[in-house]
Design a protein that fits this description.
The complex is a heterodimer of chains A (110) and B (112). Chain A is mainly beta and 110 residues long. Chain A contains no helices and eleven strands. In chain B, strands 2, 4, 5, 6, 9, 10 and 11 form a seven-stranded mixed β-sheet that branches. Classes of the chains: A mainly beta (110), B mainly beta (112).
Chain lengths: 110, 112
């Protein structure tokens, strides 16, 4: 059974704060690491797919890094806004199968 | 470009019945994956189909089955429903392995 862990489970920040979450995953049989944002009453939305050790990706105020040798990825949000409130999921891909973590629930207070 | 669609959106069934859920992927996407989400659990992988072949299967009992048609549309079937099958069932499609997955809105199944 693959273990994908995310921390923290939940986070409350003030508007304008920068924040980061961690995803840890097995370092063997790695194919890709996915990040998703899941807002209430919506479908999960893909943020990044990363495949190479040392990968860094950025989309607006959100960025992610990947370390496949030690099995972790960080997601950073710079200058959090209330609309960033959501659950952030990471998923480890091995073969064609994605194993999801339980997510970090972010609440940004105005 | 139309997104992933799932039907029905909501369903209520009784224990022992069976149910079929449908997923239409984004045009051009040949991979369809199914997930179950229950309260307190993350997304649990059910299975993945690519070009009508099941490529991968999660740790679910044989009551859960699926198939994919030549137009890439996929169906998921659950037989002999149990109360614990009440969940949100999501499907996701993508063009290729390690590509971004695009999720549908889900089917909320309630078993009474």
């Amino acid at each position: 059974i693959l273990n994908v862990e995310q921390s923290p489970q939940s986070l409350h920040v003030q508007e304008g704060d920068s924040t980061n979450f961690t995803c840890s995953f097995p370092s063997s049989n790695f194919y890709a690491l996915h990040w998703y944002r899941w807002e209430t009453a919506k479908s999960p939305e893909a943020l990044f797919v990363m495949t190479l050790n040392g990968d860094e990706k950025k989309k607006g105020r959100i960025s992610a890094t990947l370390n496949t040798k030690e099995g972790y990825s960080y997601l950073y949000i710079k200058g959090s806004q209330p609309e960033d409130s959501a659950t952030y999921l990471c998923a480890f891909e091995s073969g064609s199968r994605l194993t999801f973590g339980e997510g970090t629930q972010l609440t940004v207070n105005p | 470009k139309a997104g992933v669609t799932q039907t029905p959106r909501y369903l209520i069934k009784t224990r022992g019945q069976q149910v079929t859920l449908s997923c239409s992927p984004i045009s051009g996407h040949r991979s369809v994956s199914w997930y179950q989400q229950t309260p307190g659990q993350g997304l649990q992988f059910l299975f993945e189909y690519f070009s009508e072949t099941q490529r991968n299967k999660g740790n679910f009992p044989g009551r859960f089955s699926g198939r994919q048609f030549s137009n890439s549309r996929s169906e998921m079937n659950v037989s002999t429903l149990e109360l614990g099958d009440s969940a949100l069932y999501l499907c996701a499609s993508r063009r290729s392995q390690n590509g971004e997955q695009y999720f549908g809105p889900g089917t909320r199944l309630t078993v009474t």
